Amino acid sequence: MPLPRFEKMPEEKKEQILEAAAREFADNGYEKAVMSRILERADISKGAVYYYFEDKADLIATVIRHYWMDFLDEPVANVDEITAGNFWEKLHALYLHPFDLIEVQPWMLGLSKAVWHLPEEIRTSGPLGKVFSDAIAWVGGFVRRGLELGVIRNDLPEDLLINLFMALDHVHDEWLSNHWEEMEKTEFEAFAKTYIDFTQQALEQPGSADSTRESGGMTS
Predict the structure, then answer these.
(1) Of 95, 107, 114, the residue nearest 196 (C-alpha)
(2) Extents of the domains making up the chain
């Protein structure tokens, strides 16, 4: 995690540094990202970054954590507001939310690619490992909420359901990050609905009274 000097900086300056780093990782990936370019983008003096971060791994972990915390502050991420009636619509909204951000900040797509191509030891240990653990915990909370509401199948162990959900999401994210730029908006919207329908069919409680398949598909 960042050093105390970074936490004491004005929020505007912190945002400037983190966006500069995010853009550099997005453009060049983690391995080829260069601290000097980040400093230039952020308009800070050479070497100053090491007053704020232990190393490059610490910096990318801080970047990912920053945008993850921004996501958790969004109403769409509030698990407590999910009901049996809106669970699948909420999942659809959660799915679309990052792509709404990409339309405003296109470099977010490159950052996503950089994260999925990180060396395994960086993704699973140290400060970034903690960020990933927090994300997995949030996904676990989402799945458990579905189980509590009776909309997610309960004929498989809970930990297996969570791991299946995470694995499906991981494979999907990696594929889409490589094909996103090839898709027109209408193609993506159709793809998004098909993917969410597929996820619902895999996870939905068999014979659920709220099955949207029986009613002709998800309400949009």
Answers:
(1) 95
(2) 60-203
Taking only the tens place, the pLDDT of each residue in 105-140 is 888 888 988 887 888 888 888 888 888 888 889 999
Does residue 209 register a pLDDT over 80? no
* Helix extents (H) in 43-184: 49-52, 56-72, 87-104, 107-116, 120-124, 126-149, 158-179
> Rounded to 10 degrees, what is the CA torsion of 118, 124, 130, 136?
100
- In sequence order, the 6+-apart residues with CB closer than 8 A to the CB of 118 are 30, 60, 128
- When computed from its CA atoms, the radius of gyration of the chain, rounded to whole angstroms, is 19
User: What's the CA gap between 218 and 196, in Å, rounded?
Assistant: 9
* Sequence-separated (6 or more) residues with CB below 8 Å from residue 70: none
Kindly report whether the global pTM for this prediction surpasses the value 0.70. Answer: yes
> pLDDT tens across 63-107, in order?
999 988 888 888 888 988 899 999 999 999 988 888 888 888 888
